């Protein structure tokens, strides 16, 4: 999956004040401070309450937004970490280990117990009696799903209905199979979730 450049804290703070409403509030707080300093409005400390409250709201809003950005970024990094690193692929008639980032649609890949699926694969052959795959990263279901090589019936567009497909970042819990790469990178089901 695509790696993004990390945004610095200063850039994140700057982004919060690029919003039109934030700029309007900032200008109104500055005007209120000028009025409080020149003494055209209320006397004493009460003249500074309004601009102080506006600035406090702007600062709290920026802090919450920055926290949410960091939280979203860490969730995206967790999705990227779920990606398989190496896999067994058929190249020039031999099974060789390759990084999943080198896969292209049409490659033949073999998966077995304990493997993370390196890309979205259409199953060609079961190398064991059955194949069980945990699809929790995509569906949230912790129960393993039985997979087979039979053609999909019409109307089965949902991930749950695609029993002849295994999806990137899911885990093989039982069995072994061979499949053909259909989607890689951001075109996989988990890549679409990341987008």
Note the topology.
Layout (H helix, E strand, L loop, with lengths): L8 H8 L3 H19 L10 H33 L4 E6 L2 E6 L8 E5 L7 E7 L4 E4 L1 H4 L5 E3 L17 E2 L4 E4 L1 E8 L5 H6 L1
Helix pairs in contact: 1-3, 2-3
What does this structure look like?
- With 195 residues, this protein is an alpha+beta fold.
- The chain has 2 domains: 9-81; 86-194, Calcium-transporting ATPase, cytoplasmic transduction domain A (Distorted Sandwich).
- Helices cover 36% and strands 23% of the residues.
- It contains 5 helices and 9 strands.
- The strands form 2 sheets. A 6-stranded antiparallel beta sheet has the order 2-1-3-9-4-7, with no helix packed on it. The chain has a 3-stranded antiparallel beta sheet with strand order 6-5-8, with no helix packed on it.
- A hairpin with a 2-residue loop joins strand 1 (86-91) and strand 2.
- Helix 1 packs across helix 3 and helix 2 packs antiparallel against helix 3.
- The chain starts with 8 loop residues before the first helix and ends with a helix.
- The model has no long low-confidence stretch (mean pLDDT 84).
The helix content, as a percent range, equals 25-40%
- The CATH H-level superfamily of the largest domain is Calcium-transporting ATPase, cytoplasmic transduction domain A
Number of domains: 2
Question: At the first level of CATH, what is the class of the largest domain?
Answer: Mainly Beta
CATH fold-level topology of the largest domain: Calcium-transporting ATPase, cytoplasmic transduction domain A
Mean pLDDT: 84
Secondary-structure element string: HHHEEEEEHEEEEH
Please count the helical segments: 5
